[in-house]
Amino acid sequence: MALIDSHTHLEGFHRAGETAAILARAREAGVETLITIGTEPQDWETYREIERAEGGYVRHTLGLHPCSVDEHWQEAAVRLRALLDERLRPVAVGETGLDRFHLPKHDSARAEQLLEWQRDSFRTHLEIAARHDLPVVVHSRGATSECVEMIDAAGFDWSRVVFHCWVDDASALEAINRRGGRGSFTGIATYKSATIVREAARQQGLERVMVETDAPYLTPEPHRGKRNEPAFVAHTAAALAREFGVSTESFAEIATRNTREFFRLG
User: Fold this and answer.
1) Of 11, 141, 190, 225, which has the fewest CB atoms closer than 10 Å, so is most exposed?
2) For the chain, percent helix, then strand, then coil, each to nearest 5?
């Protein structure tokens, strides 16, 4: 069985000197490739170094997470454009998008300013991705319909859009699927309470399914409560295989093929 962790964050493991151990456990668990996701300029060069060192086992994306967007976001966008003109290309732009959940709760003026910067940053990421013929990894928290409207307005190719860590209902994902986009699924799909997430996965179908850890967050059962890592993507795959009534091996083959095609991994 071979899987791809389509969305993970290696920066914390790298700082702790644990990258080699984390990747060894991932290989042992059957993870054939993992994609480490850029969130801010501080992790971009780290991920490029890891990709160089790992000979393609680790691939990277470049993007500014909406929670990293502030008054300096345009400086980050300049750096992003420069890196995309270099030879070591990322496999996607992102993660980018909108996050209302983490906006200041008691400062409405600051919250609105941050949200406006998030919108500007998202538009810029979509423009950069289109220019460089790259897919976009979307982070949406409490803002799925607005993200959809912005992607529509940008005229971006929906077949190159993935909403990572899908947590909304099936109807919201159906609207994205109808446009040609997709959602990917984390360890949340293994939680007993996550009925709507599993319903959304079934609605989307096997033809677009992708799995991810979002490590070190959102640890799947049976390791919930521990720090997540790429090796644990196998548990999410097994849970979703049961939902679709197929073997874990068949599910892994389909999800891996989908992920390779989406990111054009070859």
Assistant:
1) 225
2) 50, 15, 35
